[in-house]
Design brief:
Strand content: 15-25%
Oligomer: single chain
Mean pLDDT: 74
Helix content: 25-40%
Largest sheet: 7 strands, antiparallel
Distance between the termini: 88 Å
Number of helices: 3
Structural class: alpha+beta
Order of helices and strands: EEEEEEHHEH
Number of strands: 7
Radius of gyration: 25 Å
Low-confidence stretches: 1-6, 30-39
Strand order of the largest sheet: 2-1-3-4-5-6-7
Shape: elongated
Length: 159
């Protein structure tokens, strides 16, 4: 039983530092990515299905944002209590109803969720545009340097 592994676990764990796409972590082989979320790993995302997940994010002000999604329903909670975060996540993993019946969640308005998704998408696009600005600046510098080098060349076209 010690070597037996479920290749399709019920809950998939993702961790991330907020700058990249979350990556899955195998709890049986956590390696260095299996460390607890901290400022260098500010979110923990657990997915049961593509439409059911729970996420804990560590915010800059020292609070935690928990977000639960089940289908189209999205609920969230803000707290500074790390033990509460742990208990909610563990209860969700165990399919215990405590996390949803005892804790005071706020339902996220679908319009607000849509605006949040749009904001994230536009941020990604704008980040790509700023990258293109730096590429354009470098290309302009290269063309200016080429103009300087070509100005020094005396080309005789057989005249």
């Amino acid at each position: 039983m010690g070597d037996q592994r479920d290749d399709q676990p019920e809950v998939v764990v993702h961790v991330g530092d907020g700058s990249d796409v979350p990556h899955a972590v195998d709890p049986a082989r956590p390696g260095t990515a299996g460390t607890a979320p901290a400022p260098e790993h500010p979110f923990l995302l657990l997915t049961r299905t593509p439409t059911e997940s729970i996420q804990a994010r560590y915010l800059d002000d020292g609070t935690y944002e928990l977000e639960h999604t089940a289908g189209a329903e999205q609920r969230q909670l803000f707290t500074t209590d790390a033990l509460l975060v742990r208990d909610i996540i563990w209860s969700w993993i165990q399919r215990d109803t405590w996390w949803s019946t005892t804790v005071a969640w706020t339902t996220v308005d679908p319009a607000v969720a849509e605006l949040h998704a749009l904001h994230a998408e536009l941020s990604d696009i704008l980040d790509g545009i700023s990258l293109m600005d730096s590429v354009t600046d470098e290309l302009d510098q290269a063309l200016a340097r080429a103009d300087e080098l070509l100005a020094d060349i005396d080309v005789d076209f057989g005249e």
